[in-house]
Each structure stands twice: as C-alpha cells, then as structure tokens.
Amino acid sequence: MILILLVALILFGPNKLPELGRAAGRTLREFKDSVSGKDEKEEKNDTKN
C-alpha cells in the first residue's frame, strides 16, 4: 500500500493528491447511494424530516 501511495505521489505531485482523494470519495459515495437505491431527492427529504 505504501508503494502505491509513493507512486501516486510521484506521478501526480503533492498538490493534486487532495483533489484526487476528494474526487474518489465523491465517486464512491455516489456509487454506494446508487447501489442502495437512494437518489438525491430521497436524501434531501430524509434530512428535512
């Protein structure tokens, strides 16, 4: 795992890594929500109640 992180650091540089992490997190969250059957409208209704 450390080797993968070092390669990513060398390829993308320290400034791009936080952006890539955020993008990966958003992608995983959207995938998880789509698999669970929730969409954005249901989430907004759930937070209002």
Automatic annotation (TrEMBL):
One Pfam family this sequence matches: TatA_B_E
Keyword Protein transport: yes
Keyword Transmembrane helix: yes
GO cellular component: plasma membrane
Topology relative to the membrane: Single-pass membrane protein
Main location: membrane
A GO BP annotation: protein transport by the Tat complex
Highest taxon, organism lineage: Bacteria
Subcellular compartments: Cell membrane
Name under which the protein is recorded: Sec-independent protein translocase protein TatA
Species of origin: Marinithermofilum abyssi
